[in-house]
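Weekly modeling sync, notes
Attendees: S.R. (lead), two postdocs, one rotation student

Agenda item 3: backlog of single-chain predictions. S.R. asked that every request posted to the team notebook include the full sequence so nobody has to chase files. The rotation student volunteered to paste the first one in as an example of the format we agreed on. Action items at the bottom.

Example entry:
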Amino acid sequence: MKKKKIYEGKILGLSVYDLVIEGRKVKREMIEHRGAAAMLALDENNKVILVKQHRFPHGYVIEIPAGTLEKREDSKKCAFRELEEETGYRAKKMTPLITYYPSIGYNTEAIHCFVASGLKKIADLKLDEDEILSVVKIDLKKLILMIKNGKIQDSKTICAVLTYAAKKKLY
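Predicted structure, as returned to the notebook:
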């Protein structure tokens, strides 16, 4: 296998691989990404803590809080950190929910989804310079309907909410 790095940015890189699969020479272009942690955070009233965030080129979207892992950072540690930074809430516990690959054919990114529980509001948001977001709370059942109706289109939110709902037998 031969790897040629084409680009290295702040959160992702692009590489071209020349390899042999089942005796055939193939070329693969891969987006290299450290991965991310995403949190399904439910408060004591079964409201999901979400962020309304500007996501170029799609405009504002509603999604669960998430963030890119720092180099060699554990996904659970990232989950605790990102929840506080993006929402001002601290969780007592992060329970693994699902890990998935949003674009498995050309991207190395894995998203590690957690259920955040024992929430307490402790601070204001600590946003990165380029983050434009606000906190929104939506009832879990309403959020499931929003997914079914196509109003939520973010993959990490859909995967986390529907996996959680299936495990809880909510639909």
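Discussion: group reviewed the output briefly. The domain at 34-167 is CATH 3.90.79.10 (Nucleoside Triphosphate Pyrophosphohydrolase).
Action items: rotation student to repeat for the remaining queue; S.R. to check formatting next week.
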